[in-house]
Design brief:
Layout lengths: L7 E6 L8 H12 L5 E6 L6 H10 L2 E7 L7 H10 L13 E7 L4 H15 L8 E5 H6 L5 H4 L8 H13 L21 H7 L1
Parallel strand pairs: 1-2, 1-3, 3-4, 4-5
Helix pairs in contact: 1-7
């Protein structure tokens, strides 16, 4: 009986720092999570690959992992170049119906809004997203996490959540639906946590 070939996943590193940056750390975890489950190809946009090289890699891929740093609430200039040189292929078969997950790093803020906008752009290209398909990891979260209680830790994205995204990407690639979810704050939405004015007045 012939073995089933592994799905091909293209990891696109859009960080300005390329393989030496923070985003590369998350993408390295993603590659480890997909080890043995997918055939991995890398596209390092910091090297400014030619458009033909980009399109050939996109065409070979069955699914995608995108990563970028956050620069003034947006993705990197290298990822913007990627979008500009591929814009004429919007809706082409090289994209349509292929699943993707997205990773972003940031010092403090901006990653979540940027990821939402990037998902919108890539969906117009033809890509689709499984549940829990975008993750933003910040320096602030990494600093706060060791000091947080369990409730707050469930509010913070961390590198440990990379496994959830990659599991769901693999489920999408294989046509299965055993989706994973990351922890949430267990129904404590709307809880008051800021008392700076009331404490000053009462004091």
């Amino acid at each position: 009986m012939d073995s089933v070939p592994l799905p091909r996943v293209l990891i696109v590193n859009g960080s300005l720092a390329g393989p030496s940056g923070n985003t590369a750390e998350l993408l390295g975890l993603a590659e480890l999570a997909l080890e043995g489950k997918a055939a991995i190809e890398h596209l390092d946009l910091s090297r400014r690959p030619h458009a033909d090289r980009i399109l050939e890699a996109v065409e070979r891929a069955d699914g995608f992992v995108f990563g970028t740093g956050t620069y003034w609430d947006s993705w990197s200039s290298r990822l913007q170049e990627f979008l500009e040189v591929t814009a004429h292929t919007e809706g082409f078969d090289i994209w349509v119906g292929k699943p993707a997950v997205l990773f972003a790093t940031a010092h403090a803020v901006g990653a979540k809004g940027m990821l939402s906008r990037l998902m919108g752009v890539l969906n117009v290209y033809g890509l689709w997203f499984p549940p829990m398909a975008a993750l933003g990891v910040t320096y602030v979260n990494q600093t706060a996490y060791p000091h947080a209680d369990d409730h707050l830790r469930n509010e913070l994205w961390t590198p440990a959540d990379v496994d959830t995204l990659c599991h769901n990407l693999h489920q999408a690639l294989t046509g299965e639906h055993d989706w994973r979810r990351w922890p949430t704050n267990s129904g404590r939405y709307g809880e008051k946590w800021l008392f700076c004015c009331s404490e000053r007045v009462s004091g």
